[in-house]
Automatic annotation (TrEMBL):
The keyword ATP-binding does not apply. One of its GO terms (molecular function) is metalloendopeptidase activity. Its EC number is 3.4.24.-. This is Metalloendopeptidase. Its cofactor is Zn(2+). Keywords: Hydrolase, Metal-binding, Metalloprotease, Protease, Zinc. The keyword Hydrolase applies. Residues 105-181 form the Peptidase M12A domain. Binds 1 zinc ion per subunit.
Length: 181
């Protein structure tokens, strides 16, 4: 069993808000933080991810989300663990809202990366990644903006950005990022 499909939650839609500044289409920047992105430097310390689920989720949706977290913990042999926020000053805030974007991580100046920095895990390109954008991401007219170009991946266009589970490569990268055994 894979990670539960969280994309069917109510009130989650394409990035269609116009009152939010977005970097790379899915990282929200508060208006008072002009040109500053919010990303975390490195993994969560010791693989412990404090989180808080917003009260507007139904009990069944909360269960679905926490089951997904439990599955990630299981797949990483508890190398990554999700814990209630408690008194932590930095945490993952999960709430239902419009769009598929987030305020995330810790504040710092936005960085650009070279091609050699992007694939820091030494893995093949992963069209099946749960993190992959759909082929029509950022399109103004619904036409494709992303195409599968590697030989043997023709036909993947219909599947990109539609995953409901971690791909095998997602799990490999997650474990490498957190130095999991």
């Amino acid at each position: 069993m894979g990670v539960p499909n969280l994309f069917n939650l109510p009130n989650i839609s394409k990035n269609n808000r116009t009152d939010i500044n977005l970097v790379e289409g899915d990282i929200a920047i508060p208006a008072d933080k002009n040109r500053i992105a919010f990303t975390q430097h490195g993994p969560w310390p010791n693989g412990i991810v404090p989180y808080e689920l917003h009260g507007y989720f139904s009990a069944s949706h909360k269960t679905m989300i926490t089951n997904g977290m439990k599955k990630i913990s299981e797949l990483t042999n508890n190398c990554i663990r999700f814990v209630d926020r408690g008194s932590n000053r930095v945490w993952l805030n999960i709430y239902p809202g419009q769009g598929c974007w987030s305020y995330m991580g810790q504040e710092h100046n936005f960085d650009r990366y070279t091609a050699s920095q992007v694939n820091m895990f030494g893995t093949a390109y992963d069209y099946a990644s749960i993190m992959h954008y759909r082929t029509d991401a950022f399109s103004r007219n619904g036409q494709p903006t992303i195409q599968a170009i590697y030989p043997g991946y023709e036909g993947w266009d219909a599947q990109m950005g539609r995953g409901s589970d971690l791909s095998a490569q997602d799990l490999v990268k997650l474990k490498k990022y957190y130095n999991c055994p």
